[in-house]
């Protein structure tokens, strides 16, 4: 009976393991299907067509994309397990692992033989010496934090000194809000609520029912902390120089320095592993290397010793690839001086991402975190909260994941995540409830619903039920919604922008009771025409996951736009041709087939999703616990007002190289553990 019980237990465990494996692969396949679907429908929405026109060409695109994405996931999994991408490294009959030298010859073996012959040639040996020389200097130039900062400082120095700054309409709106508030504080009488009055809160319209009884001109539309900081600096600039330009340059330079600090700190953590102690750096297989020290000059022992990197540190190719991305990719280069909330959030998120890696790597070593690192975590999260309103959702999500994955260090997560969230988000909520500032309009988070209603009103107005029209009438003008509808951007439907706009959103007269009936009207409209509603959803978000889709608004837009050309006093006269050439060169690179993909944010979104699918299959749950916020950011992209808006993808793009490095290290560690268990 005991034997039968043990056999039954083994069988049950085997079945559970099989079910778990099937579930993991099903999740990975679902991710590939979603990416393939977005690729397949992309050509339809390029032509402003409908899903009803889905044909065999679209199906072919989808099948090809699915095969490619699934192949990439399978390749990542097999390479991580040290198996050939094509063929088998195990005996399929017995399930036993076959030594790699006994595996039948494959393309990989032929490739290795060819490489061996090349290396033995004179040209190959010369190339190897050059490669070794370059690798040594790349490592030497990036083995300290200050060296990485110096490389970034020199490599990015041309950006603030020749382009000066980059911004869009949001910065001018924030400056306008602060100016009106300053005028109020100094006693100047200004219009507040009235049909013919037009105040800053009406530009990105905030429903008047959200306004307090006491006049206030500050809103949380672009996050109140940034609005006050930007507005105060620009007000001081106008007071000192009669123009905003000097304040804009100061703000851009400050963000540029912040970007250098964030990228430096994260790169240093990932490539140099500074938390490893000296006894962890000792290579006992080579005692002649003397632990983690080496002579500064072998011929001059009196010069002393220098610390060397631990064996686990990143090699030269990884270091070069990371720095090349940040120094050359327009996504990173232009973000350093772009005065919008998303780049600032992205650099702060990158800073926190590096600290999460240190927390994960030191989980078994110590329960404590150095005070300097804990302060950095608090600061990074505070900047995230100050720059993006949705940051508090991400921080609470991270807190739950952290407590589930590493309960021993709960105090660190409470201090680093919960405390800044309560102080900053709670303080803003308190200021809103007390009437000091005006809340952002909840309509901002309903971009998908607005696009669905507007598209149906434009393409099939006869399908809208009369009951839905009556419920929606106090909130929106359907005719104006249909006229303002653009497939890729929900802002026109929300009446966002300058005064001369189509007033589809009745923000002046709408009431909370009217808003309660909005969801009912939306549900009726979508139920009456689900095909057009699906078109509206996909047209607003497919570009984030379609590798062939061009950005709707790219980062070079902020370098050379009407705000820069006509909205500045003296910046527009300095290096204007150079600014236009830089923006056009980046745009030309972006439009180059295949080679331009590396400059697109959706390339990194897709690649991150595929790596995440591979991590699920490989059951790297603890690593996923600090990678999952990247998936949450993809949900933010779907609900964002515009499709394929590159500034929303910056956090994912910035973290991608470090994600790849983590995946490779995890695979190497797992292979080492497996080899030890097998006695190899």
UniProtKB/TrEMBL annotation:
Membrane-spanning intervals of the chain = 21-42, 54-77, 148-169, 246-268, 320-338, 373-392, 412-438, 624-642, 648-664
Q: Which InterPro entries match?
A: DUF6020
Which UniProt keywords are present, listed alphabetically? Membrane, Transmembrane, Transmembrane helix
**UniProt-recorded name of the protein:** Sugar ABC transporter periplasmic protein
Organism this protein belongs to? Bifidobacterium panos
